[in-house]
Amino acid sequence: MAKVLKAKNMAQCIGCYSCMLACARLVHKSLSVRKSAIQIRTRGGLQSRLAAVTCTACRQPSCAAACRFEALTPRKGGGVTFHKDLCIGCGLCVQACTARAITMDEDTNWPIVCKHCGICARYCPHQLLSLEEAETE
After folding, report:
1. CA–CA separation, 27 vs 84, rounded Å?
2. Among 42, 83, 84, 116, which residue's Cβ finds the most Cβ atoms within 10 Å?
C-alpha cells in the first residue's frame, strides 16, 4: 500500500533541522538543506512556532497537471513520481504547487519533490513526522 508523509504535533518541533539534513544528505546526496524536499520554517514572528512544508500528497496534483512533459506523474495514494529524464527544468511545477513544497535545484535545474520515502521521519528526534498508509482508490 502507498504511504505518505505526515507532520503532526509541530508545536513540539525544536528546529533542529535533522529531517532536512537527512533528506538532503541521503536522498539528494547533498550537505545543503536547500536540497531537502522538506523545509522547516517559522510561521512568522520571532517567537512563532515552526511548520513543516512538504508535499501534501494531492490526489490530483496540480504540479503534475502543469508539467507538459510528464516529468511528474501522479502516484497511488497521492503525490507524484519524478522522472528526471523527461524534465526540461521549466519550473512550471514549482509555480503550480498549491502547498509551495517544490523548489528547484540550482545545480541540476530539476525540481526537488518529496518521494514520501520516510527518511526525514526516521531522523526526527521527537517523532513529529511519520509515514502513514494512504487510502488508494
Report:
1. 14
2. 116
CATH number attached to the domain at 3-133? 3.30.70.20
Contacts of residue 88, Cβ cutoff 8 Å, sequence gap at least 6: 69, 71
Per-residue pLDDT tens over the stretch 34-79: 999 999 998 877 667 899 999 999 999 999 999 999 999 999 999 9
Instruction: Judge contact between 127 and 6, C-beta under 8 A.
Output: no
Please state, in angstroms and rounded to a whole number, the distance separating the CA atoms of residues 39 and 61: 19
Nearest C-alpha neighbor of 18 from the set 133, 130, 120: 120
Q: How far apart are CA 5 and CA 55, in angstroms?
A: 8
d(CA 129, CA 7): 5
CA distances in angstroms from 123 to 18, 50, 54, 86, listed in the order given: 6, 17, 16, 31
Q: Please state the domain extents for the chain.
A: 3-133
Structure confidence at residue 136 (pLDDT): 63
pLDDT tens, residue by residue, 98-114: 999 999 999 999 999 99
